[in-house]
Amino acid sequence: PDNAPALNNLANQYRQAREHAKAEGMARRGLAAQRTLVVLYRNAFSAQMALGRLAAAESTVVLITANLPQHPAGAVLRAELLGMRGRRDSAFAQLDSVRRARPGDLAVQYDASYFMSSLAASQGKIREAVRLSRESNEAGLRQGNRDAPLESALDEAEAEVWFRDDTARALAALDRALA
Length: 179
Hints:
The chain has 179 residues and is mostly helical. The chain has helices at residues 4-16, 20-33, 38-50, 54-67, 73-84, 88-101, 106-122, 126-142, 148-162, 167-178.
């Protein structure tokens, strides 16, 4: 009942089953047991966002910032919250600031670039979104994610088909990835 990693694993299981209220509960229980396990904040925040509970998500951001003031996850979560509240330019600027402040931190590069890519896409900046997605996946590859090149190709193909309605370019991107 007080094993934070086990509670995190349960939160992940509930999240994958789209039982977000239960996922949030497990993550919050994990945080009560161990306030330094960053992934628990992420899981609580993600569940709260999925439930549309922005005030609760804000409280999770406040909590991680208070408990782990030097950890970049607080700034990343705050930027995500800004984006969800429609303040995309502010979210983008905050993520870019975090990314620039920690150029050697591959986890920060991966997360910040990933969310910046989503923000750029939501504003119709497709070329920038694809570039940032590629940067995110490159950071993932340097962290040991062997699937990163395929993920990058899939992101590119998705942009081609979804935003540009160019099936031929999307298929070409997939062919390059699978070659």
